[in-house]
Every structure is written in structure tokens, then in C-alpha cells.
Amino acid sequence: MSSSPSKPARGGFPPLTPVASGSGSSQLDPKKAFHLAREFAADIQHVLNGTVCNNASFNAQRNVTDPRLIAVGNRLTARSIRGEMVPIGARGKPRGWIKAEYMCRIDEAGKYLTVDNAFVGIYAANEDRSPLCHFDYERDKTSGYPESHVQVHGESEALAVWGDEFTDRGLHRLHFPAGHRRFRWILEDVVEFLVSEGLATPHSADWMDVLKPGRKKFMQTQLRAAIRNDMETALLYLSEQNYSIYPPETPGK
After folding, report:
1. Contact predicate 33/45, CB 8 Å
2. What are phi and psi of 197, to 5 degrees?
3. How far apart (Å, rounded) are the C-alpha atoms in residues 116 and 17?
4. Quick one: pLDDT at residue 175?
5. What pLDDT does residue 27 have?
6. What is the pLDDT of residue 237?
7. Is residue 158 within a helix (H) or strand (E), and if so which, with residue range?
8. Mean pLDDT for each consecutive 10-residue tract of the chain (253 residues)?
9. DSSP per residue over 196-221, as a string?
10. CB atoms within 10 A of CB 122
11. pTM of the full predicted structure?
């Protein structure tokens, strides 16, 4: 999650590239922004502890180097905004580890909490906590790689066919696209991947129900943003569905 090719280090995402909040960010009280970040942290904690973990403790901390940014992660402190890994499993020896870190800000309109950077890594339960893969999102990524992507650790015979350059580079340096920013991967998708592939055992049979609220909230938020960015298509569709559409009244008329 940096401007250079990122690699899934055990410590989480590489140094962040903050994105300017824009003039609209001043329209929202900083206390309100921090409150929204804390709500987001609580949602993440609920998803993990309600499905494949049991001692996640997510919180929010302001980024001292840039007050516009708020970090969200597991057991953050005033001294460190790098979150700790969370063991996968209900109790006893972990079946693996998960690390989730986010850097948030208020959007340009000064109304909504926006994720600038997101990192969710999956690691084995061995002593080295070997990385399996990680899911990345970096808003306005400048390196030419997709903003939303997945990187996988492992060996690839196919990759070697492209030559020594790619063999030396390694499979984990390939950025597999994972959707446009409006409808990218989210934590709920990672949890479903873990359970569906047998890498984690859910706490109960209704684990999918735990994922539904977060997915719905994300889709609604992203749909609003997509409509703002393409109002013409939204209005055209409503017109095709026989809705009556009236332009907003002009002040003073």
C-alpha cells in the first residue's frame, strides 16, 4: 500500500501515502470524524469476533503526522498506529492469524468517512507466521497498479515461463485486481474466503448473517457515491422506470 510495489510484510502495510482531504473536510467537526472512525472500528471487531476470531479489540487513533487521517486497527496505541495480528480461532492454538489495518479520513464533501488505505493479511499459525496472501486497497494509487488488489505468496511454475525477471520478482509481487474502488473487496469477503476454503472454522452456523449488515452498509455507501459521480445515468434509469424527476429549486426563485 505504497507508491512502490507493495509486499505483504508481517508488520502490515508499508508507509502510507496520505491523500489530501480537500476543502470540504473542514465542514465536519473533528470529534464527529473520530466518532465515525470508532464506529467503523466497532463494526470490524463485530465481524471478526462474530465469525472466526474471539479477541479482536479494534479502536481508532489519530495520525499525529497528519491530523486529517485516522488509523483503525487492533489494539492501537498513542505511540503506535500499527495494529496487532488477531488469532483465528475460538480458543486454544490459533489456526492462523489475520491482520487488518485501515487509514481513514473525511470525504471531500465533509460528510462521510472514507478509507484511504486498507490492508488485510492472512498468515499461517507457524512460529514465523508465514504470509499466505493479503488484500490491499490504496486510494489514488500512483504506481500504475490497481487501487484494489490481492497479492499471494507461493511458487508458480507458470510464472517461471516468463523468464528469470519474474522468477526473481516472485509471485507475491503480482497485483491481482480486486474490483473498482466503488465495489472493491471488504473484510466480509476475506472472512467468507477463510471459511469457504476451510482455513477457518466459524463460531456458529449463522456466520453468514454476521456479514450481511456490513456488506449492505458498504454497498449502500458506495452506490450513493457512484450516483454522485454519474447522476446522468441514475436519472436516465429512473426515467426508464417511469419515475417523475424534477430538478432542485434554484434559490431565490
Report:
1. no
2. -90, 0
3. 9
4. 94
5. 55
6. 95
7. helix 157-161
8. 36 39 48 91 97 96 88 94 92 92 86 91 97 96 92 92 86 93 95 97 96 95 91 94 86 64
9. HTTSS--SSTTHHHHHHHHHHHHHHH
10. 22
11. 0.84
Q: What whole-number distance in Å separates Cα of residue 124 and Cα of residue 126?
A: 6
For the chain, give me the number of helices (H) and strands (E)? 6, 8
Question: Which residues are bridge partners to 118 per DSSP?
Answer: 102, 137
Residue type, 219: M
Spell 199-238 as b/e; 16+ CB within 10 A means b.
bbebbeeebeebbeebbeebeeebeebbeeeeeeeeeeee
Rounded CA separation 225/222 (Å):
5
Cell of residue 179, nine digits:
474490483
Q: Which amino acid makes up residue 144?
A: G
Q: What are phi and psi of 30, to 5 degrees?
A: -55, -35
- How many CB atoms are closer than 10 A to CB 120? 25
For 100-150, the DSSP string reads EEEEEEE-TTSSSEEEEEEEEEEE-SSTT--EEEEEEEETT--SSS-SEEE
Which is it for strands 86-88 and 58-62: parallel, antiparallel or unpaired?
A: unpaired
